[in-house]
């Protein structure tokens, strides 16, 4: 059990840490095209760490829940699972839809609309990460 909890904590550090760093980078993109490109590439590289953390979190979380379901069967677990589903959906949406559009629109005028949508989805993701962490401590 303790190995699974440690694996879950490592996944939390990698997943939330990568998501938070990417979100902070995206807040300070600015108007310079070179800076937009550089920050986008850094965020894309960090996404590997984030996806590794999310995979560790989901695998260890499912395993912990299966092993200790009677103890964990609380409404809080449902809330945490819902927040995790939103995190996964946001991550897929950002990775598959917005990263390609971000790099295509760096030098175009419609960059601002794509950038603002990406910031909104990133903010929702960070809020859900924090909610899942708080709900996890309540279990």
List the topology elements.
Blueprint: H1 2-27, H2 33-67, H3 69-72, H4 75-104, H5 111-138
Helix pairs in contact: 1-2, 1-5, 2-4, 4-5
Along the chain, the helix and strand elements come as: HHHHH
Number of helical segments with 4 or more residues? 5
Low-pLDDT residue spans: none
Q: How many individual β-strands?
A: 0
Terminal-residue CA separation: 15 Å
Rg over CA atoms:
17 Å
What's the overall average pLDDT, rounded?
Answer: 88
Question: What is the overall silhouette?
Answer: elongated
Structural class: mainly alpha
The proportion of residues in beta strands is: under 5%
* Percentage of residues assigned to helices: over 70%
- The number of domains: 1
Largest sheet: none
Commentary on this structure:
The structure is a single chain. It is built from 5 helices and no strands. It is an all-alpha fold. The protein has one domain. The protein is elongated and about 55 Å long.
Quick take:
This protein is an all-alpha fold and 139 residues long.
Looking at this protein, list some descriptive labels:
139 residues, mainly alpha, 88% helix
């Amino acid at each position: 059990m303790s190995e699974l909890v440690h694996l879950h904590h490592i996944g939390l550090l990698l997943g939330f840490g990568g998501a938070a760093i990417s979100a902070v980078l995206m807040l300070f993109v600015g108007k310079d095209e070179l800076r937009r490109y550089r920050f986008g590439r850094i965020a894309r590289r960090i996404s590997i760490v984030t996806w590794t953390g999310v995979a560790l979190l989901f695998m260890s979380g499912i395993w912990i829940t299966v092993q200790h379901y009677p103890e964990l069967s609380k409404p809080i677990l449902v809330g945490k699972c819902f927040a995790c589903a939103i995190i996964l959906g946001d991550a897929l949406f950002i990775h598959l839809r917005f990263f390609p559009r971000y790099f295509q629109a760096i030098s175009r005028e419609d960059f601002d609309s794509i950038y603002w949508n990406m910031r909104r989805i990133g903010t929702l993701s960070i809020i859900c990460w924090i909610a899942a962490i708080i709900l996890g401590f309540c279990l």
